[in-house]
Amino acid sequence: MRQIFLIVLLSLVLVQGSLAQRGAASIPSQNATPNDAGQPPGQSSAPGNDELARMRDDLNKLESLNLNMSSEIEFLRDQNLQILLRTNVQMWTIVIRDLREQIAREEQRKAVPPPQQPMRPSR
Fold first, then answer.
1. pTM here?
2. Structural domain boundaries enclosing 99
3. For residue 96, what are the CA distances in angstroms to 18, 21, 75, 114?
4. What pLDDT, in 10s, does the model give residues 81-92?
5. Is 34 among the domain residues?
6. Based on CB atoms within 10 Å of each CB, which residue in 14, 45, 52, 93 is the most buried?
7. Quick one: residue 42, left, alpha or beta (phi over 0 = left, psi -120 to 50 = alpha)?
8. What is the b/e burial string over 84-106, where b = at least 16 CB atoms within 10 angstroms of the residue's CB?
């Protein structure tokens, strides 16, 4: 009974963490103002990097919880519950991988300066 409670609790923590991650990734930084220090909207120096670092830390925690859940599955006697939880582990593995790729793309986007528009000749 304790093992089932532990697994359900870990699943809830994973769901909460994932929802928080998706919410943070889809909401633009509130600290960035359109003309703050001459930067275009959405390009803030420190808040964006802090947000990505926080997301990376959260993903590391999610991955750790997922690995713990995966290792505890073998101790369950109920085969149907084992199948269900293995499916959950596979799902979370995919979500974590996709979120890591999203973070990597965001870091690359921030590292590459936007292309400069060619100047038009004056008439």
1. 0.55
2. 47-109
3. 8, 10, 24, 28
4. 999 999 999 999
5. no
6. 14
7. left
8. ebeebbeebeebbeebeebbeee
